[in-house]
């Protein structure tokens, strides 16, 4: 009798649980629960995969990716040249700086009214905390950064980091490297048209037989780089999307330059110019679009302050020169200039209506 009573009790409890489970099923979608348990995103959780998901740029530039992860992600280049959607190409303005951008008010005037045609990325010291107002084009545009030392591979790492972050936005088509001391020499429309319609990227790459050129070459660079292939160029470059991907994904030349190009070999002057001269010389214009003045001598170009900024000086930076654009002669050779001290901001803003207006230049005047 005890065994029968015990069995009856367990049976009753089981029936109670069965009835309770059937009742609770009315409040839950069991199929959905099973689907979520088996599902690997995407497209779980009812998410629909659309083209917008892949082409929409990141909402902000902060992330937790390592450089290795970031470079891998940025190297995923579409293999079809024609985009399957209406795409407005953008210019990525990449600022490599230690900290503050004292000339940002001038740049804000430059960018104003051209949203959707540009992106901004700032690489500063990791502990720098910017205080741009929410109305500034630079607000929230500082990427995860690391220390970059002049003349060392960490400087090229910073440049590649800027390129990789900019590549995450599929709309970015041209990529220009600038410093905190750079200014624009024309209005946005002129510079945008000049870069977007260029068939070449603007990277200087020349053979310098002297001490500061071939004199920095290390024979251990062989077999990747022979002395006859060794090139020098300005750090401040501008490249299109395909070249940006090429620079980010390089593993062939990077180890050699990191090990065998150390001060007094300044890697930021040789790494990209040499690599591009070897692999893709037909894609570069072999000149820079950033003006500097070396006439004062020394290892660094001249710096300009408040007293230097005059109408005559600004005219000199854009006066007619001989250069080639899309295989035609042009008088517009430089789009940016450096180095400008913080004290130059006030007079530059006074000249901004002229500097950023340039009504006598039309957007197609480069040809």
TrEMBL record:
One of its GO terms (cellular component) is membrane. This is Core-2/I-branching beta-1,6-N-acetylglucosaminyltransferase family protein. Its main location: membrane. It comes from Canna indica. It is found in: Membrane. It comes from the Eukaryota. GO terms for molecular function: glycosyltransferase activity. It is a single-pass type II membrane protein. Signal peptide: none annotated. It holds the Pfam family Branch. Keywords: Glycoprotein, Glycosyltransferase, Membrane, Transferase.
